[in-house]
Amino acid sequence: MTLPYTLSRWSLADLFPSTDSAEMQSAFDDMDSLVSAFEANRPRLSSEISTAEFLEMVHQLEASSSLAYKIYGFAQLSFAADTQDQAAQAFLGRVEQAMASFQNRVLFFSLWWKDLDDSPAARLMADAGDYRYWLEEMRHFKPHTLSEPEEKIINIKDVTGVSALHNLYDSITNRYLFKFEVEGKVQELTRGELMVYARHHDPDVRARAYQELYRVYANDGPILGQMYQTLVRDWRNEQIDLRHFSSPIAARNLANDIPNEVVDTLLDVCQRNATLFQRYFQLKARWLGMDRIRRYDLYAPVAKSEKRYDYADAVDMVLGSFNEFDGRIANLARRVFDDNHLDSDVRKGKRDGAFCSTVVNDLTPWVLVNYQGRPDDVATLAHELGHAIHSMLAAHHSLFTFHSSLPLAETASTFGEMTLIDKLLAEESDEDVRRDLLFRQVDDSYATIMRQAFFALFERQAHEMIQQGATVDELAEAYMENLRNQFGESVELADEFRWEWVSIPHIYQVPFYVYAYTFGQLLVLSLYQQFKSEGEAFKPRYIKILSAGGSEAPVRILSEAGIDIYSKEFWQGGFDVLADLLDRLEAIPVAA
Ligand SMILES: [Zn+2]
Predict the structure, then answer these.
(1) Which of 30, 228, 453, 476 has the greatest number of CB atoms lying within 10 Å of its CB?
(2) DSSP classification of residue 351
């Protein structure tokens, strides 16, 4: 592709021409025969199996999984590009069903593997090369795995149990329309459209946006709260009673392969640094001309900069900032454009927000953004391309080991954003825009570090309270107390924020997911600090972390880079970077 880059829709042709193509039909047929061949291996599974035979089965599983991911990826990406397209919707439904059956048919292999004694398992892993960590990580679940019929029953009952509740939660909350007066006219907005006003420069508009948001959620508060109680009970019944995890959060920690004590340390250090953001909110109050900010003002802009970036310029800036860091990284990002794997324009029916999807290790990832020219949109572009770079650097690993684990998944994306912001700051001469960029950086750090850490703390408490029979109102009160601890005296808290927790999909869909954001962002702050002080010497170490993908335990990947995630000091280091930034902001005289 030649410059300049233009807003466009992506192409999925590297996967399939269309849902009804001959290629798609034969992919389904091939997948079925691959799975049948794999199933035929069952009688050969024994503790005496030879390494060659065993690895041949792993390769078969990888080949059928790769095909399954391509079909599923095509279905998901087509749907994201147009959620109103009924054909895409129906195809996604058909594929989801096919994936569940695929999983159940190959389940016997992982169950056998987890059940195998240590010594034959060690023998097979010794020669498994790149598959070793994947095999090892599966066996961590050995003490928490049930028999095949039990596991199958859980899978089947989940479709109409927790998954059905997740879908209902989505259906209920995605239908919400928010009434909001804009320029004298009452409009009906989606949540995404409404929340743009949380960053409005008029304090009254910000307050009205939040009041409307929680008016609607509070209306359904008791029913959404009841759904949450049910999901939490299901989690306990399965993870504690049936699978014998030591605590509700321990089940997530093992899936992330992060030791329990690391997560405890992380959350403790966050609680001890709550005062740092309180200091920031006090500074923000001075810039906004208030004695004390309200919760409504958390993301208020301190300058009225209306700076917009043309798409071609934005792409140049992002690629330029990558290139200044490392030419190889910029070339990988460029591949996403050259392969036409980036969906950038705003269209009706296209999915909101942004994401990067790596379907399989041997294809360039796909990136979706809704580019509108705001500084945020430029940062988002850098963020999602960072994800793509991470995947491509690890593409030489197997399908099962190239994806990094959740807590490391935000490393390249956040790092990419930070290099971009440094470039913008270096090139921007308008003081208002510069200040806006710096404040936004702290706003975003608050949202990804402290806010998520306090969500996780709330989840930990809520799981215990529900076990003790807490009511929805008692949970809402506990949530208010959580916010008071987080903000201290620095933020005035209106009562409707007691319903915030029922509006957070993550705590419904993936319990304790949220601390991965805290982990990732603090890690990147420390890495970025190392980059600043070491320059060139840092780069190979950083690229090594990314290239490892998911081929090794996060603790080991990071310790090889000299990072000890068990230590309090390491996590404190991330907050120290923010404290320096805050010092710089406090030194700027407040404009009248
Ligand atoms: Zn991300």
Answers:
(1) 453
(2) P
Do residues 131 and 400 lie in contact, with contact meaning Cβ atoms separated by under 8 Å? Answer: yes
Q: How far is the CA of 466 from the centre of ligand 1 (A)?
A: 31
| Count of C-beta atoms within a 10 Å radius of residue 442 | 19
> Which of 34-43, 62-71, 170-179, 329-338 shows the lowest mean pLDDT across its residues?
170-179
The count of residues in the chain is 592
CB 393 within 8 Å of CB 551: no
Distance (Å) from CA 183 to ligand 1 centroid:
34
Structure confidence by residue, pLDDT tens digits, 355-414: 999 999 999 999 999 998 988 889 999 999 999 999 999 999 999 999 998 889 989 999
| Cβ partners under 8 Å of residue 177, min gap 6 | 188, 189, 190
As residues whose CB is below 5 A from the ion ligand 1, the structure lists 413
Q: Is 201 helix (H, G, I), strand (E, B) or coil?
A: coil
Gap between the terminal Cα atoms of the chain: 48
Please give the DSSP secondary-structure letter assigned to residue 241: I
Tell me the one-letter amino acid at 193: E
What's the gap in Å between 58 CA and the centre of ligand 1? 30
Q: Which phi and psi angles does 179 have, rounded to 5°?
A: -85, 125
Is the bond into 301 cis (omega within 30 degrees of 0)? no
Read off the tokens for 447.
């949202």
Residue type at position 477: E
Please provide residue 490's backbone torsions phi and psi, each rounded to the nearest 5 degrees. Answer: -80, -20
Calculate what percentage of the chain has a pLDDT beyond 70. Answer: 99
pLDDT in tens, 65-98: 999 999 999 999 998 999 888 899 899 989 988 9
Distance of alpha carbon 559 from alpha carbon 468, whole angstroms: 40
Distance (angstroms) between ligand 1 centre and the Cα of 211 equals 28
- The whole-number pLDDT of residue 3 equals 61
Q: Please report, for the chain, how many H helices and E strands are present, in that order.
A: 25, 7
Question: Cα dihedral sign for 309, 311, 312, 316?
Answer: positive
In this structure, are strands 178-182 and 355-357 parallel, antiparallel, or unpaired?
unpaired
